[in-house]
Amino acid sequence: MKVGISGAGIAGLTAAIALQQAGIAYTLYEAASEIKPVGAGIALAGNAIKAFKKLGIEEAIMSKGRLLDAFVINDPTGKLISKTDSRSVGLKYGADNFTIHRADLHEALLAFVNKKNLRINKRCINFEENGNRLVLHFADGSTDEVDYLLACDGIHSPIRKKLLPQASPRYAQYTCWRAVVEMPHLELNEASETWGTTGRFGIVPLNKNQVYWFACIPAKAQDPVLKNYTSTDLLRHFDGFHAPIPEILLHTRTEQLIHGDICDLKPLNRFAFGKILLMGDAAHATTPNMGQGACQAIEDAAVLASELEHNHASFENLFLAFEKRRLERTSSIIVRSHKIGQVAQIQNAWLAAVRNFVLRALPEEVNEKGLKSILNVEF
Ligand SMILES: Cc1cc2nc3c(=O)[nH]c(=O)nc-3n(C[C@H](O)[C@H](O)[C@H](O)COP(=O)(O)OP(=O)(O)OC[C@H]3O[C@@H](n4cnc5c(N)ncnc54)[C@H](O)[C@@H]3O)c2cc1C
After folding, report:
1. What is the pLDDT of residues 153-183, one digit of tens each?
2. Which residue among 44, 144, 153 is best mutated to probe the pocket of ligand 1, counting the most ligand atoms within 8 A of its Cβ?
3. Phi–psi pair at 232, nearest 5 degrees
4. What global pTM score does this model have?
5. Is residue 176 within 6 Å of ligand 1 at its C-beta?
6. Bridge-based pairing state of the strands 200-205 and 26-29
7. What's the CATH number where 348 sits?
8. Is the beta carbon of 307 within 6 A of some atom in ligand 1?
9. Is the C-beta atom of 193 inside 6 A of ligand 1?
């Protein structure tokens, strides 16, 4: 029996690790000509760390990144709106607020994957059933046969498009720039977001003196002017935002910017389609407002590993059991994250002042209650 995995992103690599550990033969097909992560930094919450633990790779991953002390939200003057103490949250629910450069994360995951099972330059664009097997079609004209397929091919998954043509990515109404810059003198220990009416700026310290930052601006989809924004344009846009935001932008060269409109996928009502299972962003892409997209992809792999320990009559049954465990949780995160984005991107000054007032008045326990449902997970 052979399982195919389309896509060697975070979902595909972690799913491969789960299959490999269960002794199941698999082939991992990646569209790109090399496994090169697109993106800057990433923050992973305690639930992802628990999922890594389930896969037995927690230490290897954690040695490549760092844990932060807190997550804070400020207004553009630098005045605190809310603060979550990651150390105390970590003590209750396991390590939290872990940050890592995406390249380091991919490299660390790839180290666990048997390279003999990896095929690059293989963009899987279609499939058909042939008796008991699935025939996969690739963009280069080649085909391959597998018994089952894990579709880990991201938010624009062609496999999902064929299975559910009506489910397409939804634009969140804001566009985002990201970069990683070296700023040895900053010595930051907290992740932060600064919420202004003209946009939102996030700072996430990584290890090796690197700082990952992101900036979200309300915009129409595919805005041609914003598409060509330089770091100087962003500096002008975030003029008046507190330190070290201007300094970070001054340190960023335009060619370091990664730009894209923010999208998610409205919650689906199934992930299992007979011999095919949707995983990661192909199944449940969410806006990045809760920092949970990759965490949920990693949880998928941990749940796959857990279901592989059960004695399912068939893989079709295993896929259904996976779906049962994953649908509600991932759907609620998509909905919550979408709403948080709307609140964080408020453009009306009066509404923003009310929001900040309410958030400042909220007792810490309310904040923690929201976190508990995310972090308190077992595999
Ligand atoms: C701005 C931003 C910030 C984010 N920050 C965080 C964060 O801090 N924390 C967090 O948990 N999440 C975050 N996320 C979400 C996270 O990036 C995604 O949820 C995660 O990358 C999903 O992994 P994936 O493997 O499912 O999909 P992808 O990362 O999209 O990987 C898909 C892989 O499949 C390949 N592929 C695509 N099509 C095909 C095909 N047809 N055939 C074969 N291969 C194919 C691609 O080349 C790629 O390697 C953020 C997202 C954005 C946009």
Report:
1. 999 999 999 999 999 999 999 999 999 999 9
2. 153
3. -70, -40
4. 0.97
5. yes
6. unpaired
7. 3.50.50.60
8. no
9. no
